[in-house]
Amino acid sequence: MRPKPVLTKHDFVKRYQANEFGNRSPTWDSLDDWLRGDYGEGLIHLRNRVAGGPTAYDVAPLSAIIEARKLQELGVKYSDIYVSAMAPTHKTVLQGEVQRTHNQLELFFSQLKFPMREALRKDGRQCCGLQALCWLRGYLNQKSLDWLMYLLDAYEDHVVEFSTYSVCWGTKPGFNTVYWEVRQY
Question: How does the average pLDDT of the chain come out, rounded?
Fold first, then answer.
């Protein structure tokens, strides 16, 4: 039985935090939850439950409230802000969006060591079919590639956003790829 489609960003975030989509960044449901926890000293990413909405990358823990207020000034509701540990962007080897259309893989990707939006805007490249599969096989370790193929099979007509690193990182041991989003196209 296939999982239900992802219809909204709010639905996605709830399911993401429930680990439905596999390896991810450590994530807190809200800024308040993050502030109550043992968040350590690493940088964070203030994310937005609104698709395509503004976010804040590389936020130092002591600046979290200030950065959240800046997002609010841009129109982001406080209740739409959630927090993820900042991924090791400096170790990015491949990132992008992949989907299966007419039984063919389509990959929009970059190898720049920037957050995905910026990397794809600056140097987004497109490939499909066997070339896309070769790019994925060349950088995703076997666990990560197997899970990506599962996501593409299970969530037909969806795009999977991912980042692959030169090291294993995220909530699931042995994965060098984090799956940021699964959404209908």
Answer: 96
Question: Tokens representing 54?
Answer: 């503004």
Q: Give the pLDDT confidence score for residue 41 in this predicted structure.
A: 77
Give the start-end residues of each E strand in the chain.
27-28, 44-48, 56-59, 81-85, 92-101, 104-110, 125-128, 158-165, 177-184
Give long-range contacts, CB 8 A cutoff, 24+ apart: 54-57. Answer: 57/86, 57/89, 57/115
Q: 54: helix, coil or strand?
A: coil
Give 160-184 as a DSSP string.
EEEEEESS--SSSTT-SEEEEEEEE
Report the predicted TM-score, pTM, of the whole model to 2 decimal places.
0.94
Question: DSSP state, 85?
Answer: E
Four-CA torsion 164, 25, 129, 8, nearest 10 degrees = -160
Report strand pairing: 27-28 vs 56-59. unpaired
Give the whole-angstrom CA distance, residue 31 versus residue 3: 29
Return all residues near 52 (Cβ < 8 A) that are at least 6 apart.
none
Task: For residue range 63-97, list pLDDT tens digits in order.
Answer: 999 999 999 999 999 999 999 999 999 999 999 99
Inter-residue contact 76 to 54 (CB < 8 Å) = yes
Rg (CA), the chain: 16
Strand partners, 47: 82
